[in-house]
């Protein structure tokens, strides 16, 4: 009987592993089919080469240029006076490295890499959602075959950002602080808000200290007595610092990624004012919300979800997400939908909440897959709220 129980347990584990690996693969394939159908419905040329290029819009073109040409040293005759420095280097560097080995175009390599990162993000999310299969299915559907899955099918930083963020919080869950620090360093080289994850690392350290009976006052002393924790904190901003050093040496301005934002129309202001202006922007008659209204509503919902994370005592994730939303909100609402989709703790929380009941789970799953087609058409058509 003991042998039979052991065999049954091993069989159950095997089936779980197969399911965890297969679910995102199925959604990855279905997403490819749906997005291609949407592309073919609006494109006179349905070839795969045109398909990959058609999805490369807005920031994607900047990353292609960085991967192929690097960053500018002004002046460059015949080029735009808007520098590429506002776009961080890790993902373009990875694509450029692969391109030196494989004889494919930049956008083809990046598209495959983004899909692979999306798939891996799902696998990492499995233990983060406490092995909740319904929530896992929804999360995989959202990333790979959902309304915003086109972000994970082209050359944008969201696929890599979601994957590394997931790895960071998995490392924190397992108290692997050096691994979390390395993940934060990679995040800070992917997008500027990635460095903010260091606060989630420190909060997790504090929670562990308190769980062991330590006092609030004694936390700094406990921290100094753990070299691994100090190393984790110190290496967390390494990606950002390396980029600052590179810009200082090559351009003469280590903070060129901040200063160039003026050329993109980003001016520092009050986040609440930007939200109000977005919500109230409706110059045309009719009921359909405008792009600024969608962006403002998305930001408000995301901030509310950050509060829910805090209520569920996920303080590190809550603070990271709130700060990663507020920082871009200090300039304007541009790209807000994409930024929210790229915050893995928020999308995982949404999947968990929507999977609470089986009927809701089924309805949401159908909505995710069904809206993939229409949102892809909107992306290909250049709808501003999706920029």
Automatic annotation (TrEMBL):
Q: Which domain of life is it from?
A: Bacteria
Organism phylogeny: Bacteria, Pseudomonadati, Pseudomonadota, Alphaproteobacteria, Hyphomicrobiales
Membrane-crossing residue ranges in chain numbering: 12-38, 101-124, 136-157, 177-203, 229-249, 291-311, 318-341, 361-386
Designated name of the protein: Glycosyltransferase RgtA/B/C/D-like domain-containing protein
Gene source species? Mesorhizobium tamadayense
- Keywords annotated in UniProt: Membrane, Transmembrane, Transmembrane helix
């Amino acid at each position: 009987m003991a042998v039979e129980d052991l065999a049954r347990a091993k069989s159950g584990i095997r089936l779980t592993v197969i399911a965890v690996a297969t679910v995102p693969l199925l959604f990855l394939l279905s997403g490819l089919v749906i997005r291609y159908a949407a592309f073919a419905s609006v494109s006179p040329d349905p070839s795969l080469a045109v398909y990959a290029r058609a999805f490369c819009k807005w920031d994607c073109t900047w990353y292609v240029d960085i991967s192929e040409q690097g960053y500018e040293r002004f002046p460059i005759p015949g080029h735009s006076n808007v520098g590429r420095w506002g776009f961080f280097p890790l993902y373009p560097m990875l694509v450029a490295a692969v391109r030196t080995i494989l004889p494919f175009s930049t956008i083809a390599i990046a598209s495959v890499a983004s899909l692979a990162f999306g798939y891996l993000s799902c696998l990492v999310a499995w233990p983060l959602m406490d092995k909740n299969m319904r929530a896992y299915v929804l999360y995989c559907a959202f990333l790979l075959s959902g309304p915003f899955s086109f972000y994970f099918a082209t050359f944008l930083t969201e696929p890599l950002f979601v994957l590394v963020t997931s790895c960071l919080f998995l490392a924190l869950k397992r108290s692997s602080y050096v691994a979390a620090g390395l993940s934060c360093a990679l995040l800070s080289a992917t997008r500027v808000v990635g460095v903010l994850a260091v606060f989630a690392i420190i909060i997790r350290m504090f929670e562990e200290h308190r769980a062991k009976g330590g006092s609030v006052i004694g936390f700094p002393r406990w921290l100094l007595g753990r070299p691994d924790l100090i190393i984790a904190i110190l290496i967390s901003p390494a990606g950002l610092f390396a980029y600052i050093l590179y810009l200082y040496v090559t351009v003469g301005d280590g903070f060129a990624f901040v200063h160039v934002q003026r050329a993109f129309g980003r001016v520092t202001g009050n986040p609440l004012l930007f939200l109000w202006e977005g919500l109230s922007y409706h110059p045309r008659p009719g009921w359909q919300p405008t792009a600024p209204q969608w962006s403002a509503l998305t930001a408000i919902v995301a901030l509310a979800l950050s509060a829910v994370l805090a209520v569920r005592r996920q303080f590190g994730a809550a603070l990271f997400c709130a700060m990663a939303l507020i920082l871009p909100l200090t300039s304007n609402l541009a790209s807000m939908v994409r930024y929210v989709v790229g915050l893995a703790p928020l999308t995982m929380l949404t999947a968990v909440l929507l999977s609470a009941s089986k009927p809701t789970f089924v309805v949401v799953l159908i909505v995710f897959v069904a809206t993939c087609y229409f949102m892809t058409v909107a992306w290909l058509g250049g709808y501003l709220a999706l920029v």
